[in-house]
Amino acid sequence: MGVAKAPPRAPRSKRARSIDTAAKYMDAAEALFIRFGYEGTSIRAISARAKMTLGTVVYHWGTKEALFRDICLSRFGYIEQEQVRRLQACEANWQPGAAANLDAILRALIEPPLLLPTDARIAQTTRLLYGRVLTDPSPVVLKVTVEIFREASDLFRRLSRRCLPDLDEDVFHWRYTCGIGAFVFAQSFGHRVSYAHSIEGPHTNWQEVCDEIVKFVLAGLLAD
After folding, report:
1. Predicted confidence pLDDT, tens digits, the chain (224 residues)
2. Inter-CA distances, 164 with 46, 61, 98, 99, 111, Å
3. Rounded Cα distance, 194 and 204, in Å
4. Which of helix, strand or coil describes residue 134?
5. What is the sign of the dihedral through the CA atoms of 161, 141, 206 and 178?
6. CA–CA separation, 128 vs 203, rounded Å?
7. C-alpha span between 135 and 129 (Å, rounded)
8. Closest Cα to residue 128, out of 76, 200, 198?
9. Which residue, 90, 96, 208, 218, is the most exposed by fewest CB within 10 angstroms?
């Protein structure tokens, strides 16, 4: 008696193939955006890496900017929502004393992009893209980043200012700017310090990294 043959596999739908094509193209674009920045990444380079035609981006997104925005939303949408949720909780549970509130506010901003609930490879890619978009000089990147993070950013700055009402506005601005800079560099580009000094980077425990960044930025904001 012969072995029964498996039924033929049903062909994948056109929609499923289209989704796979878009995902592959986004992966290629993301890798190049991280490495070369927005202006340094061309549609031709993305298409070559993805092994697809130049018309793919036009078919799925229309423009490079729309593609970039879609990538950022897919990586950062959850992060921004979690930042907003935690910042709103800080405001609802306001405590006496600037230090306690600032610690909670800083953690609400810093922990979501660092303590990602996903596998290590995706988490690392997300952190690298996060660092790139927050430091990329392109006006397009600035526009897209502001659009995505506006609610969390505005809420974080307002609550931080509320903790430090007696600081001169210029002093607050520069302390706030340096704090954001320390956070972005430490979580996305810390490995460059190890490379520059030819030393082996420390084993990364991201909760410990969060704790150190929070302590550092908190001390700077509260300094005499």
Report:
1. 454 554 455 444 445 557 788 999 999 999 999 999 999 999 999 999 999 998 989 899 999 999 999 999 999 999 999 999 999 999 999 988 889 999 999 999 999 998 988 788 888 889 889 888 988 999 999 999 999 999 999 999 999 999 999 999 999 999 999 999 998 888 777 777 777 877 776 667 889 989 999 999 999 999 98
2. 46, 44, 7, 10, 22
3. 13
4. helix
5. negative
6. 17
7. 10
8. 76
9. 96
At CA 221, angle to CA 184 and CA 138, rounded to 5?
30
Inter-CA distances, 103 with 152, 156, 180, 221, Å: 16, 12, 14, 11
Amino acid at 120: A
Residues 6+ apart with CB under 8 A from 222: 98, 99, 102, 164
- The predicted model scores a pTM of 0.83
Neighbours of 64 (CB within 10 A): 18
The pair of structure tokens assigned to 100 is 């306690």
Tokens coding 86: 């935690």
